[in-house]
From TrEMBL:
Lineage: Bacteria, Bacillati, Actinomycetota, Actinomycetes, Pseudonocardiales
Keywords noted in UniProt: Oxidoreductase
SUPFAM superfamilies xref list: Glyceraldehyde-3-phosphate dehydrogenase-like, C-terminal domain (SSF55347), NAD(P)-binding Rossmann-fold domains (SSF51735)
Residues of the GFO/IDH/MocA-like oxidoreductase domain: 163-243
Domain Gfo/Idh/MocA-like oxidoreductase N-terminal, first and last residues per copy: 6-118
Species, as recorded: Amycolatopsis carbonis
UniProt name for this protein: Gfo/Idh/MocA family oxidoreductase
InterPro entries the UniProt entry points to: Gfo/Idh/MocA-like_OxRdtase_N, Gfo/Idh/MocA_oxidrdct_glycsds, GFO_IDH_MocA-like_dom, NAD(P)-bd_dom_sf
One Gene Ontology term of the molecular function aspect: nucleotide binding
Pfam family, one: GFO_IDH_MocA
Keyword rRNA-binding assigned: no
């Protein structure tokens, strides 16, 4: 370990942990992947050994080895372990949604605040350079009246995430999985979302939502992970007195976004900063929107 590197433990060994978190934490100059945790040590060890880390199924052992934790597990599991980790003084890199429900998200945010630890939510698109430049341009122009997000995919029809239990659960699906990304971008582009005006869930887990924003803008979101759309459609657009501006998703940017997130995370820990546009309170805000949408959709 280099002097100044954060010792980070990875919670989870699934596809996202293997392809994004583990290599990102290993290769970043400010972090060291020190340990990998799974409920069965036989699952943790192969990934850990591939990156020169310790594999464990013991949370107390994990906490003794690390300064921070990165999560790649279902929301309910994350909220339980992350709350305990914050109480133990560990900084957190969280997946979205940050918990399975709003109550769990609130408990986690309270624990982070009380402990005074740094936290970031893995809102991948927000950390891409393309998105940052797009949002900067919108802020400089102003005058945006509305917008919309479309995220249409067949990810749950087949592939590496199609057997993910929490995504297949009635409380998961598109709203919980890709909803946070879409809502976050609309919020960042048009002003804080203050209310969910309408929410409807149709066949194929197809969600149609409408939001109110501070300043009077309105927006819509259309989401599904069960439509045979190839390639996946990811688009956010805004419109107003300066015309119509769109943001798409470039393929292969997850690793670059994770590197940018780790840049911010390492800087937060080094400076003692606990606030960030994508910290745990962002996750709490997005959880509140998800809960309201569920209520409206019945």
């Amino acid at each position: 370990m280099d002097v100044g590197q954060l010792r980070i433990g990875l919670i989870g060994t699934g596809p996202w942990a293997t392809t994004v978190h583990a290599p990102g934490l290993t290769e970043h100059p400010g972090t060291e992947l020190t340990a990998v945790w799974a409920r069965r040590v036989t699952s943790a060890r192969p990934l850990a050994e591939a990156h020169g880390a310790v594999g464990t199924d013991d949370l107390d052992e994990l906490f003794s080895l690390v300064d921070a934790l990165a999560f790649a597990v279902p929301p309910a599991v994350q909220a339980e372990i992350a709350t305990r980790a914050a109480e133990a003084g560990k900084h957190l890199i969280l997946e979205k949604p940050i918990a399975a429900d709003l109550a769990g998200a609130q408990r986690l945010a309270d624990a982070v605040d009380k402990a005074g630890v740094a936290s970031l939510v893995m809102l991948t698109l927000r950390f891409s350079q393309q998105t940052r430049e797009w949002l900067d341009g919108l802020a400089a122009s102003g005058g945006w009246r509305g917008g919309g997000a479309r995220w249409l995919s067949g990810a749950l029809l087949g592939g590496q995430y199609s057997t993910s239990a929490w995504r297949l659960d009635a409380s998961g699906g598109a709203l919980a999985d890709i909803g946070p990304h879409a809502f976050d971008l609309l919020d960042a582009a048009l002003g804080r979302i203050t209310d969910v005006l309408a929410a409807h869930r149709g066949p194929d887990d197809l969600w149609q939502l409408m939001f109110a924003h501070e300043g009077g803008a309105t927006s819509t979101a259309t989401l599904s992970l069960r439509l045979p759309v190839q390639p996946t459609v990811v688009e956010v657009a805004v419109y107003g007195e300066h015309g119509y501006r769109t943001l798409g998703r470039k393929p292969g940017t997850a690793g670059e976004s994770y590197t940018a997130l780790l840049d911010d995370f390492a800087a937060m820990v080094a400076s003692g900063t606990t606030t960030h546009p994508c910290d745990v309170h962002r996750g709490l805000h997005l959880s509140a929107l998800i809960e309201k949408a569920r209520e409206l959709a019945g």
